[in-house]
Fold each of these.
Amino acid sequence: MGYLDARGRSYLGRSEAVVAEDVRTEAQRILDAAADSGWITDTPVIYQHPLAYLLGLEGIALLRAFSGLYDRDFTLARLREIQALLDSAEEFGDGVEARPITTCEGYDQWAPFYDEPGNQLLDIEQPIVREILDSLPVGVALDAACGTGRHTAHLASLGHQVIGVDTSREMLARARDKVPDGEFYEEDLHDVPLPDDSVDLVVCAIGLAHLEDLGQALAEFVRVLRPNGHLVISDSRGLIGDIGLPLVRVGPDGGIGYMPTYARLASDYLAAALPLGLQVRRCEEPKTPSPLLGDDGVTLYDGVRLPDPVPGDPPSIWSLHELAIEATNAAWRGRPAAII
Ligand SMILES: C[S@@+](CC[C@H](N)C(=O)[O-])C[C@H]1O[C@@H](n2cnc3c(N)ncnc32)[C@H](O)[C@@H]1O
């Protein structure tokens, strides 16, 4: 069977055994080169190679096929595509190393663009969070990790007296513009600057993924909540299970940094929340719409085709997807985008 990849190359007539052997040899060559050059270290610097992401997608797709979701042709097409990707390894450059940066550094830089349309996670999360917020009694509301005030503004429009806390000065500046009557603090969620039993509602949207210790932040939320108060949490999910994709950014100095991100299982939130006396009233895990890409590689959510990946830049997974359309759609299939 002939097969064309997203770059229009065709793969014909190789036996699967030869393909598998070639894949093993090429993978070993890349691994040896990585070890020789010190790429593999135990420091917190992370290493992102575009091929690592693409081959990871292929791997997830193959596991889905192995479990029965896809057929023989799909599996063999994946093996050929892996071979082709490895054959063109040099076109992807050497990948990038990124050092950890603080969320203040990361979000201060992101703030001017954060509210621009096109963030699918926010579009998926927002209607569900708003539906919950709209059903709760009006009072004093804390937006914890309020960012640019996306939910703070909605809470204010519902009549709440709103307080926002965030560590990013630039994100807070946007929130202050949006909600001039709000009370805002440049503080950490680990140490919320409010007295005990002082708020009726805490909202923490897509912020906990940045915290290593869920328990401490949740304990702070419970401390400031009045008895019978409400806590609404949303968070991003990993690509698969506990595999999160850290946000990588090119800093003003040209250096590459990433914000550590913790992808959690639903049970991790429960394990942190239940001992604090919190009771779960509702839980949603809205999925990323599937398929993610059309046959032409365009993201179906917004119809956008991103520019080709630039070797030496941090790999943009969205640009890479069109190099492995079927694998991307299979790997992302059924992925929860958020937990609420
Ligand atoms: C993805 S944004 C979400 C912003 C807003 N809640 C929303 O949903 O649009 C994550 C926010 O968490 C903030 N953040 C991260 N770690 C924090 C911490 N330890 N304490 C306070 N804010 C934090 C960041 O500065 C950023 O504004």
Amino acid sequence: MSYEGTMLEQLAMPTRAEVEKALLITLLKHNGIIKEFASSEEIVNEIAGLFSLNQEQREAVLERVYQKENRIVKTPLWHRLLYRAADSLAKEKLVTNPKTTVQLTNRREWMLTEKGFDAALRLLNISSEQKENLLVKSYEVQKEIKKLIDIERPKDYNPLDTKKKTQTITRETSIRSRGFRQAVIESYDCRCCVCGLKMQTPDFMAWEVEAAHIVPHSANGRDDVLNGIALCRLHHWAFDTGWFSLSNDCKIIVSSQITRLPKNYGKIGEYDYFRDTLTNQKPILLPSNTTLLPHQKSVEWHRQHVFYS
Ligand SMILES: [Zn+2]
């Protein structure tokens, strides 16, 4: 047995297969990405914690002689085991390695692929239907997001996708719709652009806020950021039913029907939630990247076809 193998056995370290599983689970819990191990003690310790590794196991050092340079290189055994497991996941195309990821995101991280995402869901017994709502990043979805946000803002824009058909959910449509959702939600800093609500599920894996199509999906609205805004569930519903729309400069326009709404409706206790958050001429919270503002053609369509003036 090799020197490294003997050390792993003597210290009763977890097997590489066990570390691979722990890595997939950790990636899912960290929304699909973890920093490369050399720059993140936090992740290294978190995964060590999953195996309840003791001090000796965490600190064991492997000494290798580099004969050419005649020097001894010391590598922490646990780091090396982690790296080997991650590298093996990369070979199986379950993750992308930091060298590949950095080209897409400019950050040196391990990132789940779609295949790795599915494998991690299976390990945690999470159904694949839930995949659509999770925040988890995958390499393929990040590529889609890059396409969606690296745009030149067109003057002439058709918010309707004439080629869009009602499609069954295939791998491609799932990647596209998750790309749309994540790109819109992240552009708006994960908050409702009307009331500012920012809220997560208790497992911190999904947002309350939704990516709303301005020209709705049912009218073949495009799945791109120029046709999307981030809204909480109440404001998404109010936008889709025509309670409010947006002016070309992204200010709220409220339906005149609000004057007919009984006084005790839309309230939470004494707080007049519906009326206080929907104020005529109030600007919505805009994305910091102004290239990603809703396109005026999208809001014009919404005012004409959905808004209940
Ligand atoms: Zn809201």
